[in-house]
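General statements about sequence and structure are easier to judge against a single worked case. When preparing material for the folding task, we compiled for one chain both its residues and its backbone structure tokens. The amino acid sequence and the backbone structure tokens for this protein are reproduced below:
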Amino acid sequence: MENIGLNKQPFVAGEVALVGAGPGDPDLLTIQAYRFIQQAEVAIYDRLVSEQIMALLPSHCERVYVGKKQAQHHLPQEGINQLLVDYAKQGKKVVRLKGGDPFVFGRGGEEAQYLLANDIACHIVPGMTAASACTSYAGIPLTHRKVARSSTFITGHLQENGELDLPWQVLNDKQQTVVFYMGVKSLPIITEQLINAGRLPSTPAALIRKGTTPEQQVFKGQLSNLNDIVIQHQVKPPTLIVIGDVVNTFDDKQLTQLGYLSPINV
């Protein structure tokens, strides 16, 4: 029997592929992701999947939008789960296009569990998560020798009770880069709690809006004035929050030499 390799099984009718579409730039798609996209008969896609990536789908592919905004779900997660099962049982090759990586704040694990519980085979296709892709496009290394020896990815999504219950004391290491997804609305809580936990108010920080897309904006400041930047520049989601000394690794001249847009420094 031929060894086709790990995760190289063919995509057959009645299966679902959970495909990480990355943060927006189609150049960041993996070859594996492109291979599944090209075979899709049905694409169930999120709000953050870019138009350029959607354009890669076959012309005959049915497109089903299930996007979510904070506290505004076009279709509840339970409905998305069932939708995947229903299309697969119709004998379709179903691609679930998810912004970033399916297993990084993408509920890919929940969807895979539901599919398997309903005897639907599924493929997991990794994608570039925003924390690594958007920071790279902004010229911010997540780790840097003698500056940051670790990085932590956290969802800033508020809980139903309006609180953000996180191990704040663990996040006060000066040599740790902290990246918040979905944290614009909870930014006042984030900055207050980090400072209370011991992070200096002067800690460099950045906001990366629509990273890797033509609309990318980068705002740099300090932990203490991040919320003021959001208000002043009307920064809205999708925006990544990066906190740590790595934010200032390169100055504006160096960023230009590297081919990056100069950030808005506030």
